[in-house]
């Protein structure tokens, strides 16, 4: 491990504020990075890590605060500006061109030009690519197409891209999420080699054991705010978890006691090849079942399998007392299952359509006769559920894209509640919305459970999971790693289960 010397940071962020549509993503965050340091950046989902990374890489600019690079105040107005300063990033979703070869990807945007012919100097490009790959100890042919590479090999190409522009700062965002243990070890070998050569690395991972293996210091963010920075040798995993989740529950979670009734959904040994396996649980009428986990836990994939969007490869699903075969969303709807997706704009709404069209979309069969649509009946249902959800809009004719995030979420909820489901799956139901709307949605969930509806709530916010769930299941890397009853679980226990690595 490196002992950070008393030197000037290569990168320093001071009192950074960033908000989107009035919602603070970062509030007074400061961060420093030294040459030859691997600095871990951790926090729950929604803590502000991604926003901070996007400010460092020039995707976003802060509303307040300043950035210093090598001691000089600077501003990264775009990604090119950050790139020119020697800042590169490797994201969980790799940014390569699969139909081009390795060398073309490494030198994309700055290919060497022959001064005489003014054309690309292919010989120089292949030579330099080979030199960079060999310096990393990677045995890849620069002329090979990226399409045939493994994920680990693609990450090596991404690192080579960064070195081709002499990157001084390298950001690694969840780089091991899809790697095997052997591939992770190889990545860490290269990270240590880069640290030794003076590259500064920001390392983001939800696998806490990795931080203690690779990082020199760790900075924790919580709710968009800076919690603290500690040397890794001076801190324990329990300390990090406490810093990540040290929040109290309050009136934001108006959970009311409801009668827990019969089992309405039974999932046994559900699996999908390479995604999740051995998923088993029961859901009761009147119950809110919390499903917790971090990025890569595969909670959404389980929900999509139950709803028939991406059917499972094996296992059984039982609704009521009957085994069922759910192969499509239509099958799920007919069984009384509704699913509110995590990304409301991409998967929950048709943004160009008005409120009426969005709310009644799953119910069109009820309003159609041959080629005719009973628009009056359609508007009546839309009005009913828009009022129930207290959607704030100019009228039912307003386009969904013109609404605030909170009101968009209310429209999505109204749309699926109009199908009168008995089982409701909510995927991150309060993500990216204001506190007042969060409280309204929590109150609605509690009311629905009180009326006998069975609810699965997927959430990355531990206070929400603890505040609203009757029972909590925890997933990590496609497996169940914990189960807790309401009142018995703590945030630390859930986080420990969420970062547990699958056997």
UniProtKB/TrEMBL annotation:
Q: What is the lineage of its organism?
A: Bacteria, Candidatus Moduliflexota, Candidatus Vecturitrichia, Candidatus Vecturitrichales, Candidatus Vecturitrichaceae
Q: What is this protein called?
A: Ribose transport ATP-binding protein RbsA
* Gene Ontology terms: cellular component: plasma membrane
Q: Which UniProt keywords apply?
A: ATP-binding, Cell membrane, Membrane, Nucleotide-binding, Repeat, Sugar transport, Translocase, Transport
Q: Which organism is it from?
A: Vecturithrix granuli
CDD domains with a match to the protein in the record: ABC_Carb_Monos_I (cd03216), ABC_Carb_Monos_II (cd03215)
**Entry's Gene Ontology molecular function annotations:** ATP binding; ATP hydrolysis activity
InterPro entries, per database record = AAA+_ATPase, ABC_carbohydrate_import_ATPase, ABC_transporter-like_ATP-bd, ABC_transporter-like_CS, P-loop_NTPase
- Superkingdom, natural source: Bacteria
Q: What is its main location?
A: membrane
Recorded hits in SUPFAM superfamilies, A to Z, give:
P-loop containing nucleoside triphosphate hydrolases
Matching Gene3D superfamilies: P-loop containing nucleotide triphosphate hydrolases
Location(s), subcellular: Cell inner membrane; Cell membrane
Membrane topology of this protein:
Peripheral membrane protein
Q: Which residues form the ABC transporter domain?
A: 11-248, 258-502
Q: Which SMART domains match?
A: AAA
Which GO terms are recorded in the biological process aspect for this UniProt protein? monosaccharide transmembrane transport
- Residue ranges annotated as coiled coil are none
